């Protein structure tokens, strides 16, 4: 039974200096410091359990999200956890519909600069903050039930599951009744699929070999190590310089051979015609997909690229920066993507991701989650394992991203075996970081940053 009143919400700005090694770099984010706005929820319950929630950010962006989490705190504090999850749809809507927060541009005074930031509705900073808070609620709920989050979801009856979803703005493609029906139909074979997951895990691909900032020698070395470790699917960053892309893609394709799967990711670098032209030149390396070829807001642009690249056998993948379920709905309606990439922190937590998984099922589009960042692998594995067991019932054309960074900072790190995610066994959403890691990486007063900042003369 869920219990306790939320007595404290704290939020930490935790950053890892990944940009120093070029880890995580792409054509648009050339110096990413993998970071998180890290939320801790405490209750007055005697069990002493805490809920941990993160949202993924890049360095300086974190302080902005931290402000937004604090702005949302009054919605959570002093609430009864039973009341929150008992009407999760209502609570989700309360957080995402704060009449004062959803409207405005937010003016933030940081170190001498003034930033104007759009924070709503259901997009941008406030939505990332919503995800951090709700992820903490889901973590706490799963912990109180003594189950890993994926299992909490798998064991929930369809009616309870859909009661967590806000169907506002999507009923033209998915009603609550239809969602329930999808879940009911997928009850068949659930037990066998759960056993399959526990025995073999969920198939993964790696992005860790080919960040854009890596020199060719690193790329080669990481590729050959990944091959030895049994990886068969690889993603390469592209989009900044065509000649570089040709050289790097050739190098990777030569190393992995013609049979293994290659994906490319441009991180929104191109205009629509440029995307088509560029990918036509990279087609010889046989990519399965081009990810984020253009602005995440350009639904019709994605549709045009999809149509143009289909004859070359290249699909369009996108989602890691899709604001919300409405954008996903339209991408699906417009046949703008062949692979849908949910993100555990970009959307409004499990609640909104459930709606996207169900829409993807209805449109028969495979979900291949985004996980490049700190903690995203830990979180999204729960969603995709649930998706397989309770929604999609298929592994056809599906795989979950894996990046080999920063797992050592988590109390319950992902377990990868033979290029597959093994289902987590510990209770919760795998969101909890090690206390010492948080302390050392807190910005700007953690030991790691104090040293770095003083070396830079700050
Ligand atoms: C900035 C991030 O590392 C981004 O490049 C991740 C990404 O696009 C992916 O993993 O896909
Ligand atoms: Mg990407």
UniProtKB/TrEMBL annotation:
The keyword Lyase applies. It is an enzyme of class 4 (lyase). Keywords: Lyase, Magnesium, Metal-binding. One of its GO terms (molecular function) is L-fuconate dehydratase activity. It catalyses: L-fuconate = 2-dehydro-3-deoxy-L-fuconate + H2O. Pfam families: MR_MLE_C, MR_MLE_N. Its EC number is 4.2.1.68. GO terms for biological process: amino acid catabolic process; carbohydrate catabolic process. It comes from the Eukaryota. The keyword Metal-binding applies. Residues 216-312 form the Mandelate racemase/muconate lactonizing enzyme C-terminal domain. Its cofactor is Mg(2+). Belongs to the mandelate racemase/muconate lactonizing enzyme family. ENOSF1 subfamily. This is Mitochondrial enolase superfamily member 1. It comes from Bos mutus grunniens (Wild yak).
């Amino acid at each position: 039974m869920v219990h306790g009143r939320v007595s404290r919400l704290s939020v930490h700005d935790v950053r890892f200096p990944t940009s120093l090694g070029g880890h995580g770099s792409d054509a648009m984010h050339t110096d990413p410091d993998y970071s998180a706005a890290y939320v801790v929820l405490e209750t007055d319950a005697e069990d002493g359990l805490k809920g941990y929630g993160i949202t993924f950010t890049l360095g300086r962006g974190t302080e902005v999200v931290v402000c937004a989490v604090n702005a949302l705190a009054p919605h959570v504090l002093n609430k009864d956890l039973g009341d929150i999850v008992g009407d999760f749809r209502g609570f989700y809507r309360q957080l995402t519909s704060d009449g004062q927060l959803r409207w405005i541009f937010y003016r933030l005074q940081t170190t001498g600069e003034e930033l104007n930031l759009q924070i709503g509705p259901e997009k941008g900073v406030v939505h990332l903050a919503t995800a951090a808070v709700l992820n903490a609620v889901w973590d706490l709920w799963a912990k109180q039930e003594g189950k890993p989050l994926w299992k909490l979801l798998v064991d929930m009856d369809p009616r309870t599951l859909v009661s967590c979803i806000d169907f506002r703005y999507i009923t033209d493609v998915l009603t609550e009744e239809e969602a329930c029906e999808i879940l009911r139909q997928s009850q068949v074979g659930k037990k066998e699929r759960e056993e399959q997951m526990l025995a073999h895990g969920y198939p993964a691909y790696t992005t860790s070999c080919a960040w854009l900032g890596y020199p060719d020698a690193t790329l080669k070395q990481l590729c050959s190590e990944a091959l030895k470790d049994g990886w068969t699917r690889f993603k390469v960053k592209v989009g900044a310089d065509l000649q570089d892309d040709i050289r790097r893609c050739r190098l990777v394709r030569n190393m992995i051979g013609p049979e293994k799967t290659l994906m490319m990711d441009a991180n929104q670098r191109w205009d629509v015609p440029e995307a088509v032209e560029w990918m036509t030149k990279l087609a010889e390396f046989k990519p399965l997909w081009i990810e984020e070829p253009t602005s995440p807001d350009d639904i019709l642009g994605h549709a045009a690229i999809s149509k143009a690249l289909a004859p070359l056998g290249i699909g369009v993948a996108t989602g890691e920066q899709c604001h919300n379920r409405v954008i996903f709905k339209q991408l699906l309606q417009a046949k703008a993507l062949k692979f849908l990439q949910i993100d555990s922190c970009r959307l409004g937590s499990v609640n909104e991701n459930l709606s996207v998984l169900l829409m993807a099922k209805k449109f028969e589009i495979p979900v291949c989650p985004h996980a490049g960042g700190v903690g995203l692998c830990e979180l999204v594995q729960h969603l995709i394992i649930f998706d397989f067991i309770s929604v999609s019932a298929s592994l056809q054309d599906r795989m979950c991203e894996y990046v080999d960074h920063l797992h050592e900072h988590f109390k319950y790190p992902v377990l990868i075996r033979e290029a597959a995610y093994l289902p987590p066994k510990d209770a919760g959403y795998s969101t909890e970081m090690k206390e010492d890691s948080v302390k050392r990486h807190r910005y700007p007063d953690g030991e790691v940053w104090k040293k770095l900042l003083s070396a830079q003369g700050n």
